[in-house]
Amino acid sequence: MVRLRPALGLICLLCLFLPFTARPDGGEPGPLPLLLLRSELRASRTVLVQTALRRPGLICVLDARRQDGEVMTVRGGLESAVLTAGPLKPKGLLRLLFRPLCYRPGSDLFQEDTDLRLDRSLNPCRRAGLLLEPLPGHLGLFSFSSPEKKAKSGGYLCLGLGEVRLEALALTSRPEQPEQAEEWLSLPAPYPGGRLLHLGARAGCAVSGWNLNLFAAVCGGERTPPGHTAQLAVARRSGGKKLALAGGICSPGFLTPDGRGGLPRLRAGICACLGDRGPLRVRGLAELLLKPSGQACAVGLRREYREELSARLLLPVRDAVWRLEGKAVVESAAEQEEPAHLSTAVSGEAELAREGPGLAVALGLKNGGQDRGNELGLEISSRRGGLKWSASLEARAGCAGSSACLRAGGEVELARKDGRFYLRLSCRDWLDPGRLTDAGAGLIELTSLTLGWETRAPLPAERVLK
């Protein structure tokens, strides 16, 4: 975030002059230079304006945000073949390192190249920093930080040998030591402080239509024991058929670069799409997730595991497609002090949807157990030409210590060739109908309203340097 006028002036100069000095990548004709303007007005009295200038080989972005009458904050960034600065979005190995064993079989992340790209969303900046690529696409050195978190620095190396791709990553960080909680016995244990070092590698190859990816990482710190994680993903696509398998392990001592522990110990699953079988199209997902020692317990240790099974069925009928999805989740927990005692909770959800030309309707039922109760949702959406709208209504009942609650949302979007206009309205949280009868009831504070527009203007082609 930048609040100084000199910095703002420098960003504006970069946005004006750099686009006309950058060279396209590889000599192939890229997309035409484009000026993109976006603006949003939200119910929380937040105003966001973004100007983006894109041309082959370079993207410049300038954001301005003002919230609830505070001083306007300005954020800028640029992305070129060698240098990327500003808000960053991690890809590939970096995402796997921050969230190990958190992605399902068939996820595109397993085949995503390791990189840091410019984050052009209007959301608050999550990571800001600098990426220098002396060898674009092969060697990168970076340093970034998150709000209220110290900087993380490192580098990555990517090599391609025919159908084989090798990637290596080194990352060093110093997470903040959290304040000691009142309950000293907690799992996972709070991070003790000090510097952390992560080393990761990934190997991927494509053989006879099969994509294989193997990821492994180790970590160690000044005050923490070493830990490791590894994951294998296999996928194959052929026409309308798809088969994906993924499995991984994580040791108790492995920590993310933010110092977060308590990660899943084991995750394994299979996803299959059998293609067309007459009028039927079947897709299923079965997955096992083990996460022992994942919660604090006042009297001793607690072990938990979670099993999840989901299935999907598509049935085309005339000009519409009926979709039936179901998922069952079994969560069990056992106390170490009482190994014979095992508590099990079963929850599930089912959805029936009809997708036709211009109109789609979905009805879902979810049973979240004693803590979350039962949820019933209805969603209707339509798209005709450049007009798109959707509306949703959800109801929850049976929660422990609460009455029935409602949540609604809607969106209208009008798109044209040179831009779009959109309006979004949704509830921030579940609403108790009894509160709506109170005068004022802070209804505006309980809802989220976003009004935005986006326009695109191609730049004159004769101003592009070849």
Q: Strand-residue fraction?
A: over 45%
**How much helical structure, as a percent, in the residues?**
under 10%
Indicate the low-confidence ranges by residue numbers.
1-8, 10-31, 293-301, 461-466
For the sheet with most strands, the description reads: 24 strands, antiparallel, barrel
Alpha carbon gap, first and last residue = 34 Å
* Overall spatial form: globular
What string gives the helices and strands in order? HEEEEEHEEEEEEEEEEEEEEEHEEEEHHE
Query: How many DSSP-defined strands?
Result: 25
So how many helices? 5
What radius of gyration results from the CA coordinates?
A: 25 Å
Task: Give a quick precis of the structure.
This protein is mostly beta strands and 466 residues long. The protein contains five helices and 25 strands.
Structure description:
By secondary structure, this protein is mainly beta. The protein has helices spanning 5-17, 93-98, 369-372, 433-436, 443-446, and strands spanning 34-42, 46-55, 58-67, 73-80, 83-91, 115-118, 128-135, 139-145, 152-161, 164-173, 196-207, 210-221, 227-238, 241-250, 266-277, 280-290, 302-317, 320-335, 342-356, 359-367, 374-384, 387-397, 405-416, 419-427, 447-458. It has a domain at 357-435 and 443-466. It has a 24-stranded antiparallel beta barrel. A hairpin with a 2-residue loop joins strand 21 and strand 22 (387-397). The chain is globular, with a radius of gyration of 25 Å.
